[in-house]
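Support reply, case 0932

Customer input (verbatim):
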Amino acid sequence: MSTASINSYATVNEVSDLFGERLYGIAFDNGLVKVGRSRRVRQRLSGLVSQANAKGHAEVGCWASGSLAFIAAAESEMIASVAAEASPVRGREYFADIDLERTADLAAAAIDRVENRLSTDALTGAKVRRAIDASGLNVVAAAGAIGCDYGAPYQKLRGDVSFRVKDIEALGNALGVAPESL
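Our regenerated output:
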């Protein structure tokens, strides 16, 4: 059973305008489902509805996650899970042969997997701090949880310290772990 927060909506107008990176899914009356991530989910979904309306299609429903600090990893997990069950159409984020509720379930499971992987990882904040100090990586102090910035939005990893790292591969090497595990 997933513990991730996924909220379902009948229309885009019901989606809250909360700030923060969130996963989303939206279904259209032509059978397509689009999944992805956005910092401004309501605005993104509204744009997708406008594009669909211009082609004679309407939204059927949508969902959005709560704000996620580890959005890139969660999105990758979600898309891989949906792609394993559905037919990709038009790029990597549009799918046929899957219903909206199933994509929400897959997104929640993806969020849980990423959270579990990061929270049960053997790396601690102290170990990461030592590795950063030893590596000379480009680090910017901040408050909150450990994170990295490698061209994607802020990513929460684990621990009690925050930083932004410009080179995730260098951080992985410094920590002795595969960069993709971060």
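We compared this against your earlier run and they match. Two observations from our side: Residues 28 and 145 are 37 Å apart (CA to CA). The beta strands are 6-9, 22-28, 33-38, 59-65, 87-89, 94-96, 147-148, 155-156. Please reopen the case if you see a mismatch on your end.
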